[in-house]
Design a protein that fits this description.
The protein is built from three helices and 30 strands. It is mostly beta strands. It is globular and about 65 Å long. The termini are far apart. The structure holds CU-O-CU linkage and copper (II) ion.
Length: 430
């Protein structure tokens, strides 16, 4: 059972000082409704989720990360196509940042869009405890909207006394859908009323460790304008929206309700209200207009004729026979966890066509670091340009990627419980 609460948590802190200090530390967060106990968690700068980091396209984020939790950590800037050394993966792009230590991150934001940051050390536990926040890169010419709102969708497994349930490495969870919460919420930032007739931009981010959220929106009429931070050349209808962990969707829409915008999680029993934005008053001056496409980010044209063709098969989990060579619950191509040699070494600029084959009984959300890739659609058409692709149980989905960012990059399932139990590999771009 999931219950509903009215708390909204995230403060908004603009990136003001240089470098900006981002401090991981224990916090108490009011996840449950006011009146219920606060939940001991981890957060950044005193809150979970952490502060909103915002800059304009082309600007540099200078962030001094200080680790004040009682184990090692590091911060990954999910979806940003940045220098490998800044990617925040302990053991691959940097040393783990020990308790009391710090690390300077500095990277230029090449793409405008909706991104997020999160711990990449023991992420299945640290992200579940709250070590994440939104990272927004504004367009040089932002779209004309009355409100720009971040909507983080999360779930938590909370005990009766308001604490997070232990068992972050529960093998049964890992072999199934991962750690699913018993309480879910859409956290809207900033949470202030909008008016009937306002045009709003909603930046939805699935920050849950493992749960896939189908989402229905009520009280608006508009279009999806971006997935995973990258603009859609043709904005599409807001229907059948499903976000796997780490996936984002930007929506631009007009408010059509005089009561509220509602974020609804359609479940098998009853629709579950994840959150709402109150509507007060009316905008009488805005003229009706089409929802425009966002200005495009840079995309290298893939060289399909000379593409290297690869296949990545997801294996393992409950209710299927493990590959003979796998050593943990999950595997890619018979291999669990990271090996000395990468899944593939690419020449810089090389195009690859990768078949993501899901030979398991569960859906997976496959994330590639440092790059975006095209999802291949019907008739070989190149679809959305994403950093995380959801592949349903038994399905195959092809992606096409131009590997143009040098370095060592993780490729893993973003159901963090699956990642913990072997579903990860890496690629190298030389
Ligand atoms: Cu959102 Cu490997 O990361
Ligand atoms: Cu998975």
């Amino acid at each position: 059972m999931i219950t509903t609460c009215a708390a909204a948590l995230a403060p908004r802190i603009a990136l003001a000082s240089v470098p900006f200090e981002l401090i991981a530390q224990p916090v108490n967060a009011q996840i449950l409704p006011a009146g219920d106990p606060a939940t001991p968690m981890l957060g950044f700068n005193g809150s979970a989720p952490g502060p909103v980091l915002r800059a304009r396209q082309g600007d540099t984020f200078d962030i001094r990360f200080l680790n004040q939790i009682d184990e090692g950590s590091a911060v990954h800037w999910h979806g940003l196509r940045i220098d490998n050394a800044m990617d925040g993966v302990p053991g691959m792009t940097q040393e783990v940042v020990e308790t009391g230590a710090e690390f300077e991150y500095s990277f230029r934001a090449p793409d405008a869009g909706t991104f997020w940051y999160h711990s990449h050390n023991r992420s299945w536990e640290q992200v579940a405890k709250g070590l994440y926040g939104p990272l927004i890169v504004e367009e040089l010419t932002p779209p004309d909207v009355d409100h720009d709102l971040i909507v983080m969708i999360d779930d938590w497994r909370i005990t009766e006394n308001g604490a997070l349930a232990e068992g972050f490495e529960n093998r049964h969870d890992q072999a199934h859908q991962g750690r699913l919460g018993n309480f879910a919420r859409a956290l809207v930032e900033p949470n202030s009323p909008v008016r009937l007739g306002d045009r709003v931009r909603l930046r939805l981010i699935n920050v849950a460790t493992d749960r896939i959220f189908p989402i229905e929106l009520e009280g608006i009429d508009g279009k999806i304008v971006a997935f995973d931070g990258m603009p859609l050349p043709n904005p599409q209808a807001v229907s059948n929206l499903i976000l796997a962990p780490a996936q984002r969707a930007d929506i631009i829409a007009d408010v059509t309700s005089d009561d509220q915008i509602a974020f609804v999680f359609p479940t098998r029993d009853d629709p579950y209200l994840l959150g709402e934005i109150p509507v007060e008053g009316a905008n009488t001056t805005r003229q009706p207009s089409e929802i425009p496409a966002l200005p495009p980010n840079e995309q290298k044209q893939p060289d399909l004729d000379n593409a290297v063709v690869l296949s990545l098969t997801m294996q393992g989990g409950a209710m299927s026979r493990p590959a003979s060579t796998q050593t943990d619950i999950w595997a890619f191509n018979g291999q669990s966890g990271l090996t000395d040699t990468p899944f593939h070494r690419f020449e810089r600029g090389q195009t690859a066509r990768i078949r993501l084959v899901n030979d398991t009984r569960f859906p997976h959300g496959i994330h590639l670091h440092g790059h975006h890739f095209f999802e291949v659609g019907a008739n070989n058409s190149l679809g959305a340009f994403r950093d995380t692709a959801m592949v349903n149980a038994g399905d195959t989905r092809e992606i096409v990627c131009v590997f143009d960012n040098p370095g060592k990059w993780l490729l893993h399932c973003h159901m963090l419980g699956h990642q913990a139990a072997g579903m990860k590999t890496w690629v190298e771009v030389a």
